[in-house]
Amino acid sequence: MPAYIIIELKQERLLEYEMLLRNIVTSFSRYEGRFVVRGGNGEILTENRNKGIVDIIEFPSSKVTKQWLESEEYSKLNLKEVSDKIIIIENDNSKGENNISNEISLILQNQIRKIQVNRYSQIREIYNNSYKLPELQTIKHQICICITFGLDIAAMTLTNHLLEKFLKLALIYNDSLKNKSEMDLDSEFALIELIKKFTSKYDDKVLFETIKLASKNDLINDEEKIQLEKMRVFFRNPYSHAHREKTYRGAKIGVTEIKGTDAILKFLDGKEDELPKSQEKLVDLPFGDFIYSNNFAELDCIPYLIELDIIIRSVESKLYPEGQI
User: Fold this and answer.
1) CA gap 226, 222 in Å, rounded
2) What is the pLDDT of residues 138-165, one digit of tens each?
C-alpha cells in the first residue's frame, strides 16, 4: 500500500528549498515517488502556530519509502536544513507487505501508471463496438484491456488467437448456413449436429489453410487475403512461435563493450567514445529480449488489431447481411 512523506517547510528557507527542488524530484523519482501535494497550506489546529507550507510525496510502499530515506541521494539533499518537520505516514497492516491484497494493489497502481490515453483512443471504437459473433467478444475485450494497460506482448498473443479463431468460426458458420436446408427440423439438436459436422472439418486446420479456404469461399477478397498472409508472417508466426529473427526483422543496436577496470573507469569518466563499439542484430542478443521484445510488441499490437478488426467486420457482413444472425 502507498506510504507518504510530509515535509513541513521553514518559511525562511523556502528559496533554498526551491533551488533544491529539481534534485529532490530526480532523487525520489528513482524510487517511483511523486508529489501529491505541492506547496500546500498547512495549519496545525492543536498548537498555537502559524500556517506553514507543506509538500507531500507518495511512494508505492513503506519499504520503498525507507529505501529512499536511507539512500545516498537523500542524504545529499539535506532536507532537514530547510524543513521544520519530515513526517512518514505508513500503512498499518498487521499482515505485513506480503499480504496478497497489498501486492495486488501495488500491481494495479503500477499498471495504471502505464495507461496512455492516446493508445486507448486508437482502439476505443473497436472496444465499444460489438462483433456479430459473440464468440469473439471476450478475446477482443481482453486485447483492448492489454493494450490500454501496456501489456503489449499479451495483446499480440491474444490477437493471434483472435485471428485463428475468427477464420475457423467464419468457415464453420459459412458452411453451416450453406447447408442448413439439410437439417431435419423434426430431429432433436438438428442445428448442433449440423454445426458439429463442420467444426470437425476445420478444427485442425492451420492458419495457412484457413486463409486459403476463406478466400476460396469468397469470405475474403484478394486484398484481404494478402493482408492476412502478412499478419501470419509478420505477427502471428514471430509471437506465437517465439521466432526472434522474424520478430526483430533485422533491427540492429549499438553495443559498447565495457571489460575490465580501465574500461569501467573510462565509462564513468564520460569517455565512452574511447571504448570498443559495434552494431549488432537484436536477434543475436537474447539477453535484451526483456526490453526489446516488448518494444516491438508496443509498435505492432495496435496496427495489428485495427487491420484485423476491419477484416472481421467485413466477413461478418458477408455471413450475416443486413444485420441478420
Assistant:
1) 6
2) 999 999 999 999 999 999 999 999 999 9
CA-CA distance, 215 to 157, in Å (whole number)?
24
**What pLDDT was estimated at residue 168?**
96
Tell me the three state secondary structure of residue 188: coil
SS3 of 302, please?
helix
**Cα-flanking dihedrals φ and ψ of residue 33, to 5°?**
-85, 160
Q: Which of 60, 89, 118 is the last residue of a domain?
A: 89
Strand-strand pairing, 52-59 and 83-89: unpaired
pLDDT at 97 over 80: no
Number of domains in the chain: 2
**How far, in whole angstroms, is CA 269 from its chain's centroid?**
36
> 241: which 3 cell numbers?
512461435
Task: Enumerate the β-bridge partners of residue 256.
Answer: 277
Is residue 117 domain-resident?
no
pTM higher than 0.70 for the full model?
no
Q: What is the Cα–Cα distance from 136 to 312, expressed in whole angstroms?
A: 10
The residue assigned the cell 508466426 is 237
Using one digit for the tens of pLDDT, what is the confidence trace for 41-51? 544 433 444 45
Query: Smallest Cα–Cα separation from 9: which of 286, 17, 1?
Result: 17
Same domain? 168 vs 237: yes
What CATH number has the domain bearing residue 44? 3.30.70.100
Concatenating the DSSP letter of every residue in 197-255 gives HHHHHHTT--HHHHHHHHHHTTSS-HHHHHHHHHHIIIIIHHHHTT-HHHHHTT-EEEE
